[in-house]
Design goal:
The protein has 238 residues and is α/β, with parallel strands linked by helices. The chain is 33% helix and 23% strand.
Length: 238
């Protein structure tokens, strides 16, 4: 039996980007999915969900507490066997991607993750993190968007940790890695990461990212990790 899948999408005050993310889901050929949008702003995202009028799309309020809490609110409402993370400014480019995820995780526990494209105003930059290796202990090459695991595995791992802030995803991957879950790499430009003014302000969040990285290193017993983001990894060839 094929699993059902819940895409969890936090959003805050950028309905134009959210609409693109949702339309990329609605183009998927895998029928057994839902999308749960967690509204962390003033309600514009819920308006997008309502306007699209598809019963597979649902919206919940998250209380304006930030991105991790918004994901937790969406997860609380999710009904699928599998959970797929998707940022509101990213896209699923391959219409068969959910099929590939469901096939990869149909047989049991694991984490499915993907390659992608950084969609900049001037060019598209390919990004292929490759099969999992010890690099996970020093670089978070895994894109949050497009990454999926079973809802049971997420529960068994302890769920998302809001204390990890910007590095909620890396923290989860590290816990899955150390628990021995298999990571299933789905190569190809499956996920589109839109590079725009609102997510290019890396320097503006530098102190917060540094603080969250220190918390991550302390939690996992790591040291000597430099601040970087996925676009930097793509530009430097990982």
């Amino acid at each position: 039996m094929w699993p059902t899948l819940s895409a969890v999408i936090p959003t805050r005050n950028r309905p134009h980007l959210l609409r693109g993310a949702l339309l990329s889901l609605l183009r998927q050929t895998y029928p057994a999915f839902e999308a749960v949008v967690a509204e962390d702003g003033d309600g514009e995202g819920l308006g997008v969900v309502e306007a699209l009028g598809d019963p597979r799309l649902r919206g919940v309020w998250s209380g304006g507490r930030g991105q991790v809490w918004a994901r937790l609110a969406a997860l609380e409402a999710a009904r699928g066997d599998l959970v797929l993370f998707l940022d509101d400014d990213d896209l699923l480019l391959d219409p068969a991607y959910l099929y590939r995820v469901a096939r990869a995780l149909k047989g049991g526990a694991g984490v499915a993750y993907s390659g992608g494209l950084f969609l900049t105003p001037s060019r598209d930059i390919p990004y292929e993190p490759g099969p999992l290796g010890p690099w996970l202990l020093k670089d978070n090459r895994i894109l949050a968007s497009g990454t999926a695991l079973s809802r049971k595995a997420l529960h068994d791992l302890g769920g998302l940790d809001p204390q990890m802030g910007h590095y909620w995803d890396w923290d989860l991957w590290l816990r899955a890695y150390r628990a021995g879950l298999p990571f299933r790499y789905l190569p190809g430009p499956n996920v589109g990461v839109r590079v725009h003014g609102e997510n290019q302000s890396y320097g503006a969040n530098l102190e917060g990212r540094r603080r969250d990285l220190e918390a991550l290193m302390a939690k996992h017993g790591l040291a000597g990790i430099a601040l970087k983001d996925h676009l930097q990894l793509a530009l430097t060839g990982l």
